[in-house]
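Chain A, query sequence.
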Amino acid sequence: MNIRDYGLKDNFIKSIDENKTIARIIATHKERYEIVCNEGQGFAKIKRGCYYDNPNSIYPTTGDFVIIEWNDSGDSMICETLKRKSSFSRTASTSDRNHELHIQHEQLVAANFDYVFIMQSLNQNFNVHRIERYLSLAWGSGGIPVVLLTKSDLVQNVYDYVAQIERIAIGVEVYAVSCVTKDGIESIKKYFSKGNTIVFLGSSGVGKSTLVNTLYGEEVMKTAEIRDNDSRGRHTTTSRNLIMLPNGAMIIDTPGMREIGMWDADTGIGKTFQDIEQYMGMCKFSDCTHTKEPGCKILEAIENGDIQQERFEQYLKLQKESRYNTDSNQYLKGKKNKFKEISKINRHNIKK
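Chain A, predicted structure.
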C-alpha cells in the first residue's frame, strides 16, 4: 500500500520528517478513525497528550493527512493533523445540561478534496435556495463546486431545471444525471481521475450512495429509495467515508444533511452572489441599508430586473446566519447596541 495513491503529493510532505509515518483518515467513527498508510490499513485514536494539551491542535476528520505512531497489533495513535488544502464545515449545536443554552460550533465534515459535488434530486427535494446555501459553503471550502441534479429520469423537462440552477450557480458546471438510465454519467467522469478526491454533499435520498456504486461498478454502499409522499430518504450513510474507486479516484460520501448551518461563509457567499456583490459600495450613501435610500444601486438593479428581490433576500439571510453562527456573542451584542441606539433616537424625538 502506498500513501501517495491516496492523494498525498510530494510538495505536501517536503517539511515532514521522512522518519515519520503519514496516514490518511478514510472514515470517522466518533472517537475512532480508520486510516491507511504505507504500513497498511487499520484503526487509530488521537494521542491525548498531542491534542488535549495543545489548544491549537486541529482535530482530524475524513480526508485528513495525519502523523501517526503505527501499531501492528492494535489501534495506532494520531499525533498531528497536517495542514489542509481544503475543508468543509457546517454549524452544529451543543446544549448545556439544563438545555437552556444552545452553543453554535463548527463541525468539520471533510478535508483535502479537489471538488465538491452538490447533489439534489429532481423531485420534491428540488430547492434552489438549498443549492445557493451549499454553493456558499462549497466556494469557501477551497474545493471547486459542481452541481449534480440526480434522478433526471423522473422528469421530462430536465433542461428547464438545469437552466434554473445555471442562473444562480455563476461559474459552476451543472449536470443532470440518472443512475437508472446512465444519462449524464459519462460527462462527469472527467472529474474522477487518479489521485483526485471528490466530496459528495446533499440531503438523504438524493442518490449519493447510488452514484458511488455506479461509478465503482458494483455495490459498495447501501442504498435506500426515497419516500414518494415527501421525497425524503433514510440515512443510509451514517459516517463519513472515503472510498477509493478502481481507477484511483476517491469519493468522500457524507451523511445526508437536509438543513445545513452556515459557518464562516462570508467569502463563499460573496462568490455565490457575485451578481449582487458587484453593486456593493456603489450606492450614494456609504451606510446605505438598501431599503429606501435614494441612489441605492441595489434597489435600482432590482427595479431594472438585474437582481431578483427573492435572491437578494436570500443573500441577506445567509450573511446574517453566517455571522451569527460564527460569532453569536458578538452578533447579539451588536444587535443589542443597535436597538439601544434606536431607542435613544426615539426618546429624543418624543421629547421634541
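The first strand starts at residue 21 and ends at 29. Residues 328-351 form the longest helix (24 residues).
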